[in-house]
Amino acid sequence: TVASESFVPPRSSPPPLRARAEPAPVGVADRVLRGAFRFARVICVLLIVLSALTVILNVGLGAYALLPASSVGPVAAISTPNIVAFLVECAVPPQSADENPSTSNGRATATRIEIDECSEYATELDEVMSALALQDSARAVLCRRVRLMPDDDRDQFVRGLRDFALAFRARNPKGEDCDGASAANWFISEFIKLLEARDKQHAADQSSARFSDASRRALLMPALIGVGCAILGLLVFLALPLLIQIERNTRAELVLD
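^ thats the sequence. predicted structure below, dont judge the formating
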């Protein structure tokens, strides 16, 4: 028996070696584009950060400008004059007043009307008249003073005058200018001064609040302009690297073709 020889396929020859393709030389235009792209990328990163900070800052300014208007509280109550201050000053002759509680208005009818208009404070006025030992005609003068006071300050004026009169009677000061009529005139004068000082301060606070609101709202327009410029600059410098990259890809496709 003849042994059959195994079939050995011929070895295939290795594929011929090809020379490695050398990269295409980079032209001057490509180098310029690459350099411009790197530069633009760095600039864009910086501008993105700067634009973001600008947007945040101007949004904050805009929110600050849109805050509600400053509110000034109601007119504060004043502290009523006290007897100690009067005792210090009663040695000095008081300044002449328009009306003196010790003088009469000269007409009983007018006095009756004014007293009736102060019926709400009749008890307090009776205590003042008694404590300061004032003449009956002084009641009309005191009533007129009460009606001239602001509505919100009448209660404080009347009750403060009553407490002052009771303290005066307890101290019972001696002296020509330390009588009850002088004490009443001094209290009225000091109370009016305190009212004027308070109203002046309140008006100054209101003026300051209006100026502060106007200054704050004046920041709104610059803030909006700043936000718009920051967003516009951000879009421009985001588009610039994209255009350069598109140009590079287009040139690469042309070279491959």
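The chain is about 65% helix and 0% strand.
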